[in-house]
Every structure is written in C-alpha cells, then in structure tokens.
Design brief:
single chain; 3 helices
Length: 90
C-alpha cells in the first residue's frame, strides 16, 4: 500500500478534529485522549449492535474507558476534576 493510501485509511479509521480552545500542552493531550475515547466508544457500540460482544461486556469496557479518561483529565487538568455522579457504583 502506498504511503498516501495508508494515510487516507488512517484518517478514515481514526478521524481527528482540530483543537479549538486555549492552548496548553496538557489541554492538547487531553483533547487527543478525549477523541481516542470517543473513537473507542464508537467501535464498542458497533460491535455490540452487530452482536459481536454482549451488552454487559460493552458496559464494562465503556466504564473502564471512562475511568481512564477521568484519571487522564485529573492528571492533566487538575484545576477542574470530573463529576463522579455519572459513574454508577460497581
């Protein structure tokens, strides 16, 4: 596969949006983490919809990804921690 077609494939499979906001390296990294989170959620939902994984597995994976994103945000943007109300108890 040529380098150009590989780039097109990557852009299709892993779309990213430009960062708009006050620039800091931490915000930029968190934005990348947030986009990766959204992409993984999309894949999980597609797998569950097509019957490849169960709703229970999907829920557990999403919950795990959410916790990872929360840790990332708290480490990178410690001035405003995420609200725990959206995460159901284990």
């Amino acid at each position: 596969m040529s380098e150009e077609s590989e780039k097109i494939k990557q852009d299709f499979l892993y779309p990213t949006a430009s960062y708009h906001g006050k620039f800091t390296p931490q915000r930029m990294v968190f934005n990348a983490n947030l986009q990766e989170f959204a992409q993984k959620i999309s894949y999980l939902c597609a797998l569950e919809t097509n019957g490849k994984i169960t709703a229970e597995e999907t829920y557990k994976e999403i919950k795990s990804l959410w916790k990872q994103l929360k840790v990332s945000r708290n480490e990178l943007l410690s001035d405003s921690p995420l609200d725990d109300q959206n995460i159901p108890p284990e």
